[in-house]
Design brief:
This protein is 30% helix and 13% strand. It is of the alpha+beta class. The protein has a domain at 272-365 and 381-465: nitrate reductase domain like (nitrate reductase domain fold). It has a four-stranded mixed sheet with strand order 12-1-14-13. It has a three-stranded antiparallel sheet with strand order 9-8-17. Helix 16 crosses helix 17 (409-432) and helix 17 packs across helix 19 (447-459). The protein starts with a strand and ends in a 26-residue tail after the last strand.
Length: 514
């Protein structure tokens, strides 16, 4: 057992407001400049829809993530191409989104603000017209952007290309996309800071790397040569090319804030309090196991490699590796382990990409159901409860399963049934005055679990949602450059590092993943 330190996150989709306050906070700090205007390290998508960039989930189009090779010695390789092909086509990389997939045919645009300050007398109110920053053309008509699908705008059109409907029949898809029968959920997205990042494995210059101290995936601006293979390889399409600097950029999880014990800006700004962050400890020796599991078992195996921070054996191994006590204490207080491993109510986004992401989502529930009876009075849709059953959920379970559990419906049903059980229990306490423990037992929860879940998901304070250990540079176990940068793409490792995260390294001799 070798412990990998990893900052992990949970987003509660049930509480997301779709307000994009998180997007504005990130944009103002990191990407509000020339060459980066089209970048959205944090964005909130409306589902159903194709997202930003267009159809980022469609890996038949973009070839992101890892695929199984069927070979015992090298079970994984990048989906985009074998190593020899990538190197042979270093200056030709067609498997990536184009500018129109981000910002439409006009490119990024501004407005003719100078018209608002023109002293010429006009007969009408002056207007700032849209102006393309790409061509300089005025009065352009923008036709795509990061929020083009907000609040189901045009979902009946773009939803037809949403890959999360692939496991449904065309009749089911058409029924769900009708306006009167539609559903709508918000999906906030940032870089997943994966345990097996494809962007790191694909980087020819070794600029993309994963920090040893907290698992944050970064791009070294000095080493980056702008090959853009990280864009192609990342199935979540979170690296971006800065056309002004010629460098790649991505979400860095606000690591300057993390090092001082503060949450990232998008986390801190969220008014819905949907975001949770804390350290987890991953069994590094078993990451390859989690990345190569059968699709139906991807979530379960992923949970199994997350180590229990209260386990004496894990604590002893952490001390042996020199992991700071502050990290251990934070891991024991963190809510991430409880939501993903203990309660099993959080799920990874598209685990079939096999990057072993460190961001998990609590799937959204449905509201209380009621109908008008023949006398015009409200009555419960279900005679036994006003709470919806899983078969009456507004959001299709199969849709959520395709998005969050590689199609494994039972994982989504377990997460939702446990949330419903807590709702039913709390209602029995507040309305009936008699706790209904049977509903908890049926869902596999204890009364303490239910109270803790209700506290954490509804009432948690800032220090309960964000448990972040500060950095201790003075206690670094290794002062070599590899300790600071972590593992990096194609770079050869120092001898003492050859066995670290070898599942991310591509063999120089051929197209095999070591």
């Amino acid at each position: 057992m070798k412990i990998m330190q990893q900052m992990a996150m949970v987003f509660n989709m049930d509480k997301c407001l779709g307000c994009n306050t998180c997007t504005v906070a990130c944009k103002n700090i990191w990407t509000n400049r020339e060459g980066a205007k089209y970048m959205f390290w944090n964005n909130v998508e409306t589902k159903p829809g194709i997202g930003y960039p267009k159809e980022w989930e469609n890996q038949e189009e973009y070839k992101g993530g890892w695929i199984l090779t069927g070979k015992k010695s090298s079970p994984l390789r990048l989906k985009i191409a074998p190593k020899w092909y990538e190197l042979a086509n270093l200056f030709y990389n067609p498997e990536q989104p184009e500018m129109k997939d981000y910002v439409g045919d006009t490119g990024t645009f501004t407005f003719t603000y100078e018209d608002l300050h023109n002293p010429m007398e006009l007969k009408q109110q002056p207007v700032a017209r849209p102006k393309s920053e790409l061509t300089g053309e005025e009065n352009v008509k923008p036709n795509w952007g990061v929020n083009w699908e907000d609040n189901a705008a045009g979902a009946n059109v773009t939803g037809q290309f949403d890959v999360n409907f692939d496991d449904m029949t065309q009749e089911e898809k058409d029924a769900y996309l009708k306006y009167q029968d539609s559903f709508m959920i918000y999906l906030p997205r940032i870089c997943n800071h994966c345990a097996n990042p494809a962007c790191v494995g694909a980087c020819p210059s070794g600029a993309a790397h994963k920090r040893e101290e907290d698992g944050v995936v970064l791009i070294d601006q000095d080493r980056c040569r702008g090959w853009r293979y990280c864009v192609s390889a990342c199935p979540y399409k979170k690296p971006y090319y800065n056309w002004r600097s010629g460098k790649m950029e991505k979400c860095l999880l606000c690591y300057p804030r993390l090092e001082t014990g503060q949450p990232p800006a998008c986390f801190h700004a969220c008014p819905g309090r949907i975001r949770y962050m804390g350290p987890i400890m991953v069994d590094e020796d078993r990451v390859i196991e989690a990345a190569t599991a059968d699709e139906k078992d991807l979530v379960a195996v992923h949970r199994s490699i997350i180590l229990d921070p209260h386990d004496p054996e894990v604590i002893a191994q952490a001390k042996k590796q020199g992991i700071a006590d502050s990290w251990m204490e934070a891991a024991q207080r963190s809510s991430i382990y409880r939501m993903f491993v203990e309660w099993e109510i959080a799920l990874p986004l598209h685990p079939e990409f096999r990057t072993v992401p460190s961001l998990f989502y609590v799937p959204p529930e449905s509201p209380v159901e009621s109908v008008l009876d023949e006398n015009g009075m409200h009555s419960a849709a279900d005679a036994d409860s006003v709470l919806p059953s899983l078969d009456k959920f507004r959001v299709p379970i199969q849709y959520l399963a395709t998005m969050l559990s590689a199609g494994n419906v039972s994982e989504v049903e377990k997460a939702l049934s446990r949330q419903l059980a807590v709702r039913a229990y709390r209602r029995s306490v507040r309305v009936d005055g008699t706790p209904d423990l049977a509903v908890l037992e049926a869902a596999g929860l204890t009364e303490k679990d239910a109270n803790d879940m209700q506290r954490l998901l509804s009432l948690a304070f800032l220090d309960e949602r964000f448990v972040i250990p500060t950095t201790h540079r003075e206690n670094d176990r290794d002062t070599s450059p590899f300790s600071e940068r972590g593992f990096a793409g194609f770079q050869e490792m120092a001898p003492q590092k050859m066995k670290r995260r070898e599942f991310m390294h591509l063999d120089v001799q051929g197209d095999q993943v070591i």
